[in-house]
Write a structure and sequence with these properties.
Layout: H1 6-16, H2 23-35, H3 38-54, E1 55-57, E2 64-66, H4 72-75, E3 80-87, H5 90-99, E4 104-108, H6 126-135, E5 140-143, H7 149-161, E6 168-171, H8 187-195, E7 198-199
Parallel strand pairs: 3-4, 3-5, 5-6
Antiparallel strand pairs: 1-2, 6-7
Helix pairs in contact: 1-2, 5-8
C-alpha cells in the first residue's frame, strides 16, 4: 500500500526510531503531521531545533539547563548542597521534584548499568559523581535509582566505589513498588519513600 508513497514511508521510519512511542500511534501521528497546517509543522520543527541547540546538561549534576552552565537547582541558595540524591534520568528527578519534599541537590546518572544493552560505568556519569563526592562538602548521598535489577546493580556498584568516602549513604524507603519507575509514581508514594529512607 505504501510502496507508492516513499515520503510517507520515510516519515514512518523516522517515527519508529523514537523511543517510548507506541507502534499503534505511529500512523496516527503521521496522519496528524500530514493534515496539520504548514505553519504548525514549521513551529513544531523549530521548537525541536531550538531545544536541541539551547538545552544542555548542567556541568555539575547533569540535569537539563538552558543558557547557563549550572541548572536552577544547583544555583538555588535554598537547596542543601550537602545532600545529593542520585537518580537515573531527568524523568526521575522531575518526579521527585513534583513530590515537593526534597530540598537537597541531585546527580543524574543518565541511565543504569545494563551489560546486555552494552551500558557500562563509562556510559554513565558515575566518575563525575565520585569526583564530586571527594571535592565537595557532602554529608549524605541518597540512592534513588529505580527498584529494578539494573537500578539495584547501579546503586551497589557506586556504593562499592565509595568505600573510602566517609559520608552517610541511604536509599529510598519501601513504598516504592518493585519493578516500577519513579516517573510513573504518585506524589504520596514518592514523599513517603523519601521521608522513610533507610541506610544502604
Amino acid at each position: 500500500m505504501f510502496t507508492q508513497l516513499p515520503a510517507l514511508q520515510k516519515l514512518i521510519r523516522q517515527l519508529q526510531r523514537v523511543p517510548y512511542l507506541a507502534s499503534k500511534n505511529i500512523y496516527r501521528i503521521a496522519c496528524y503531521f500530514l493534515t496539520s497546517d504548514d505553519k504548525q509543522i514549521e513551529a513544531f520543527c523549530q521548537a525541536i531545533l531550538e531545544a536541541k541547540k539551547n538545552i544542555k546538561h548542567c556541568s555539575l549534576c547533569y540535569n537539563w539547563t538552558e543558557h547557563q552552565e549550572l541548572c536552577s537547582i544547583c544555583l538555588s541558595e535554598k537547596r542543601d548542597k550537602r545532600i545529593i540524591c542520585v537518580v537515573e534520568t531527568w524523568h526521575d528527578l522531575w518526579a521527585l521534584e513534583n513530590a515537593g519534599q526534597y530540598l537537597g541537590v541531585y546527580h543524574v546518572l543518565g541511565g543504569a548499568l545494563c551489560p546486555l544493552e552494552g551500558i557500562g560505568p563509562d556510559h554513565l556519569t558515575i566518575k563525575q559523581l565520585l569526583v564530586r563526592l571527594t571535592t565537595a562538602e557532602v554529608d549524605e548521598l541518597i540512592f534513588a535509582t529505580n527498584p529494578t535489577p539494573e537500578g539495584e546493580a547501579t546503586a551497589s556498584y557506586i556504593h562499592a566505589k565509595m568505600n573510602k568516602i566517609p559520608i552517610k549513604v541511604s536509599r529510598l524507603a519501601s513504598g516504592v513498588p518493585i519493578g516500577a519507575s519513579l516517573e510513573y509514581m504518585d506524589r504520596v508514594t514518592i514523599s513517603k519513600a523519601l521521608l522513610g529512607r533507610q541506610p544502604f
